C-alpha cells in the first residue's frame, strides 16, 4: 500500500511541494538553498555554516550509506532542514552507526523527501534564495505565508554555533601553536592543522585581540561559519588589531571578515555557492582548482582597490572573489574550503602555505 503525503514545504512566493516526512516532524522557517555535492550528506548536515538554512540536495539518493561516528563536522548539527528526492532508511555501509533520519530526529531537524528537487533547484537559480516553511498538510498556503512573514530573520547564527569556552586539539611533536577563532568551525579544518604539526586552541568568536595576544600564538585562524559577515563586528575588530602581528589564515566566513577588517565590502549572492565542483583559478600559478564551497556572501572586488589586499583567486563560473592576501601583514584567505571532506583535494596546499608563513615569522621574530 502506497504511503500518503504527510508533509509539505511552502516557499514565500506561494509555491508548495508535497512529500513525505523523515527526521523530526517539527515546523520550521528557514532560508532555502541547494547543494550540488554527490556525496557527503553527513558532512553537509553537520556543517555549522548551514545554520538557519534548509538544504535541497540535487543528488537524488540520500541516506544510503547512513551516518558514521567519525565523519561529523560538528557533534551538534544545526542545519535548518533537509529536502531530498529519494531517502533510503536502510543503509549499506559496514561503518554506519545510525541512519540519517535518526540523527535528524535526535537534533530536532526536519526532513522531507519525494519532492521534485530539480524543479525546486531551478526555482532557486532563477528567482534566488528565499524563505521556506516546512509544515503539515493541514497548513494552508495563506497560513504558511503569514507564518513566514511573521518569523523574524535571525542575526545570531555565529553566536549560536561558536564554542562557549576555549578548547584544545593537540598533536604529538607539535611545531606550532595556532589560535582558531570559532565562528562555526568544521572539525576537518582542525584535523588538517593537527596533521601538519599544529596544536590548536579553539576560542569563542568574541574572544578579544588582547586575550589572543596573551596566548602568544604562532598563527591565527579564522573559521567558516553561517550568516552575514556584518553581523559579527567583534571578529572584524579583532582582526584589525591582530593583522601584522601574527600570520592570519581565513576560510569562507573568515575570508569575508578579513576583507571587512581591511575596509572592503561584502554582498549577498543570488543563490550562493554550495557543492564540490566549483572551478577556481589561482592567479599566482594560473592553475585551476576544483573546489568545495558553501557560502551566501561574497567580497566585492571593486572594494578591494583602496585596500592593501590583493586578489589571488577568482571563481570561473561567475568571476567572484575567491582569495585575497596582504603579504606585508602575513594575511591571506580563501572563500572555498581546502579541507573539504569528502571532496576535491586540489586546495590542501593552502594549509602548507600557512605553515610556511608561520615558519618564516618564527625565523624573523
Structure in words:
It is a single chain. The protein has 365 residues and is an alpha/beta fold. Helix content is 24%, strand content 32%. The protein contains 10 helices and 19 strands. The strands form 3 sheets. The protein has a 10-stranded mixed beta sheet with strand order 10-12-11-13-14-19-18-17-15-16, with helices on both faces. A 7-stranded mixed beta barrel has the order 1-2-8-6-4-3-9. β18 (321-326) and β19 (331-334) form a beta hairpin. α8 (233-242) packs across α9. It is globular, with a radius of gyration of 21 Å. The termini are far apart.
Overall mean pLDDT score? 96
Distance N to C terminus:
73 Å
Strand order in space, largest sheet: 10-12-11-13-14-19-18-17-15-16
Low-confidence stretches: none
Number of strands: 19
Number of helical stretches of at least 4 residues = 10
The SSE string, one letter per element, is EEEHEEEEHEHEHHEEHEHEHEHEEEEEH
Which overall shape is indicated by the principal axes computed on the Cα atoms?
Answer: globular
Sheet-strand content, in percent, reads: 25-35%
Structural class: alpha/beta
Q: Helicity, in percent?
A: 10-25%
For the biggest sheet, the summary is:
10 strands, mixed
Rg, Å, rounded:
21 Å
What is this structure, in a nutshell?
The protein contains ten helices and 19 strands.
Key phrases:
365 residues, alpha/beta, ten-stranded mixed β-sheet, 10 helices, 32% strand, globular
Which secondary structure elements does this structure contain, and how are they paired or packed?
Elements: E1 7-11, E2 16-23, E3 28-35, H1 41-45, E4 53-57, E5 61-62, E6 81-84, E7 86-87, H2 100-106, E8 110-113, H3 117-127, E9 130-136, H4 141-150, H5 157-161, E10 167-169, E11 176-182, H6 187-194, E12 198-204, H7 209-215, E13 219-222, H8 233-242, E14 248-251, H9 253-261, E15 266-282, E16 288-299, E17 310-315, E18 321-326, E19 331-334, H10 349-364
Parallel strand pairs: 3-4, 4-6, 5-7, 6-8, 11-12, 11-13, 13-14, 14-19
Antiparallel strand pairs: 1-2, 1-9, 2-8, 3-9, 10-12, 15-16, 15-17, 17-18, 18-19
Helix pairs in contact: 8-9
Amino acid at each position: 500500500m502506497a504511503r500518503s503525503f504527510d508533509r509539505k514545504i511552502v516557499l514565500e512566493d506561494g509555491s508548495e511541494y508535497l512529500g513525505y516526512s523523515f527526521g523530526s516532524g517539527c515546523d520550521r522557517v528557514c532560508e532555502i538553498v541547494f547543494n550540488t555535492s554527490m556525496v557527503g550528506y553527513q558532512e553537509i548536515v553537520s556543517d555549522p555554516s548551514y545554520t538557519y538554512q534548509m538544504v535541497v540536495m540535487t543528488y537524488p539518493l540520500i541516506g544510503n550509506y547512513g551516518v558514521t561516528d567519525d565523519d561529523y563536522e560538528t557533534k551538534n548539527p544545526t542545519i535548518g532542514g533537509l529536502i531530498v528526492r529519494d531517502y533510503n532508511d536502510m543503509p549499506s555501509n559496514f561503518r554506519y552507526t545510525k541512519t540519517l533520519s535518526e540523527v535528524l530526529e535526535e537534533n530536532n531537524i526536519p526532513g522531507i523527501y519525494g519532492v521534485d528537487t530539480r524543479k525546486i533547484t531551478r526555482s532557486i537559480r532563477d528567482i534566488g534564495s528565499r524563505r521556506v516553511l516546512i509544515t503539515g498538510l493541514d497548513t494552508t498556503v495563506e497560513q504558511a505565508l503569514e507564518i513566514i512573514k511573521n518569523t523574524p530573520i535571525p542575526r545570531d547564527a555565529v553566536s549560536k554555533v561558536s564554542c562557549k569556552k576555549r578548547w584544545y586539539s593537540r598533536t604529538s611533536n607539535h611545531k606550532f601553536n595556532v589560535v582558531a577563532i570559532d565562528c562555526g568551525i568544521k572539525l576537518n579544518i582542525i584535523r588538517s592543522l593537527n596533521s601538519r604539526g599544529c596544536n590548536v586552541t579553539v576560542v569563542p568568536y568574541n574572544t578579544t585581540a588582547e586575550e589572543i595576544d596573551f596566548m602568544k600564538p604562532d598563527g591565527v585562524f579564522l573559521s567558516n561559519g553561517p550568516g552575514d559577515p556584518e553581523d559579527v563586528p567583534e571578529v572584524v575588530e579583532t582582526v584589525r588589531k591582530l593583522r601584522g602581528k601574527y600570520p592570519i589564515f581565513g576560510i569562507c566566513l573568515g575570508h569575508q571578515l578579513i576583507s571587512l577588517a581591511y575596509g572592503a565590502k561584502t554582498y549577498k549572492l543570488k543563490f550562493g555557492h554550495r557543492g564540490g565542483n566549483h572551478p577556481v583559478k589561482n592567479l599566482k600559478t594560473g592553475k585551476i582548482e576544483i573546489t568545495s564551497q558553501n557560502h551566501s556572501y561574497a567580497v566585492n572586488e571593486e572594494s578591494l582597490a583602496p585596500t592593501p589586499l590583493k586578489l589571488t583567486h577568482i571563481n570561473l563560473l561567475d568571476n567572484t572573489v575567491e582569495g585575497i592576501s596582504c603579504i606585508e601583514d602575513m594575511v591571506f584567505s580563501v572563500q572555498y574550503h581546502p579541507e573539504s571532506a569528502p571532496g576535491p583535494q586540489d586546495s590542501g596546499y593552502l594549509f602548507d602555505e600557512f605553515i610556511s608563513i608561520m615558519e618564516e615569522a618564527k625565523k624573523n621574530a
